[in-house]
Design brief:
It contains 4 helices and 4 strands, in the order ααββββαα. The protein is an alpha+beta fold and about 160 residues long. It has a domain of about 90 residues. Helix 2 packs antiparallel against helix 3. The protein is flat, with a radius of gyration of 30 Å. The chain starts with 9 loop residues before the first helix and ends in a 6-residue tail after the last helix.
């Protein structure tokens, strides 16, 4: 038994331990082991694969807009009919230049590639760290919500004409 460097009265050492007040929570001691990790199965792996795939597509689409803010859009135009009966389709001579703008307020209306990369690295890392700490039920709920948002975003980008080139 270690020797205390100061003298302590006997009544303090032998004082009874009082119960904690209701609702008071004390953190575990520093040397204690953390709770075991939540269970992981094939469903979790499949959900993660879907999330990271849609996340990557969104990232690449956003980089395309950042790298090429002005897209040249031309509509096909029928020039004539070939001898075999097929149509001769060529791009229209009327070109218009459209500028896409980002809807994510954290990126700003016209982010550069560096800002896009920083945003996606930060959000991907945050998602990873947060979901690893959640119980299975909450992790799946967060992952399904994230997948839904990514699918909506990717689909909106496709509808706007943004492609990965």
């Amino acid at each position: 038994m270690p020797v205390l460097p100061v003298s302590v009265p006997a009544q303090v050492v032998s004082a009874p331990v009082l119960p904690l007040p209701a609702g008071l929570y004390l953190a575990p001691p520093l040397g204690s082991r953390p709770n075991p990790a939540p269970t992981w199965n094939q469903t979790d792996t499949a959900l993660e694969a879907v999330f990271w795939t849609t996340f990557a597509v969104d990232w690449l689409q956003t980089l395309e807009v950042a790298r090429h803010p002005y897209w040249c859009i031309s509509t096909p135009c029928v020039e004539g009919v070939l001898p075999d009966g097929s149509l001769l389709v060529v791009p229209s001579r009327d070109y218009r230049f459209d500028r896409y703008s980002e809807r994510n307020p954290l990126l700003g209306r016209h982010p550069n590639a560096r800002r896009v990369n920083a945003y996606f690295v930060a959000t991907g890392l945050t998602y990873y760290l947060v979901t690893r700490k959640l119980s299975t039920r909450w992790r799946r709920a967060v992952t399904l919500t994230a997948i839904s948002l990514e699918v909506i975003t990717v689909n909106g980008n496709i509808q706007a004409g943004i492609r990965i080139r």
